Amino acid sequence: MSSRRDFFRRLTGMGALMATSQLPSWAEDNPALFPQRGGFERLGMNYVAINIGLETPFSLLHISDTHLTAAYPHENEKKQKLKEVRSKTFGGRQEEALRDSLAWAKQNVDYVLHTGDIIDWQSEANFDLVKKYFGRELIGAVGNHEFSTDMWLSNPKEDRTEAYKDNTRSLVQQAYPFDIQFQSQVVNGVNFITLDDVYGYVTQDQVDAFKTEVKRGLPMVLCMHVPFHTENTWRVTCKFWGGNNRFTNAVVPNPNGDYKTQKTDSVTRDFIAYLKKEPLLKALLAGHEHITFQDEFSPTAREYMVAGNFLFQGQEVLFY
Ligand SMILES: [Fe+2]
Fold it and tell me: What's the rounded Cα separation, in Å, for the pair 216 and 196?
């Protein structure tokens, strides 16, 4: 356990947000999906503004869930099968969506945040794309798909535990230039915390690291893959993923999956209750559900979820 804490400490000098000034200009090398539209309308953008009372305002592009589905010809049969099937699922233009997003960000905002599921499953080609587009600068949080060796073909099966992650944790860590478990970066006096909550829960080490960050006394923004569900985020999640059902009943659907985990795992449940009383927490940024939605999380913080980047979606977040 203490070795993990040392790990956090070792990486605290690294960035948690990618400065767009450091992005190369892919737009010039690669025509965008909408070449006649120039530097705008390449994305379906949502805009949110967060008032923290800053002296120096700034903005970032928040994207999530790109679900890259690349595999090299020399990679095994499972990877080839997944490339075929999952490229159809996500439209096959995910790399363009990511490239257009970053080109847009370079012109329009100061930082980029990616909240996970950049890749759909592990492959050499997918990890090479992560390195190509984000180099040593990316930031963000990993998603559940970062740990998926082969989706439904995975062996051992994905059992949504730390032990499952341990099988490939170092492989994932090598591809992503931030501490995949917990990372802090201060931007213009705002402490951005990114952490791995990909199966809905957090660990005691992450809670301890967060509480250490609170002591710095800075306003905080929590960035992660799976939202910390409220009744409303759960309602829209069930509406979106539940298939064909009109909204005729406002009763909150029974918690299952991540929401049930967040209500039953004691470390996570206590952490969420603690966050709701932490006045330094100003916002939560999440993905995973492929829905753009926001809701009140606590008296001082709203939670903002962004839809899938594979659909050319993103949100510009203004901090002022
Ligand atoms: Fe996800």
Answer: 21
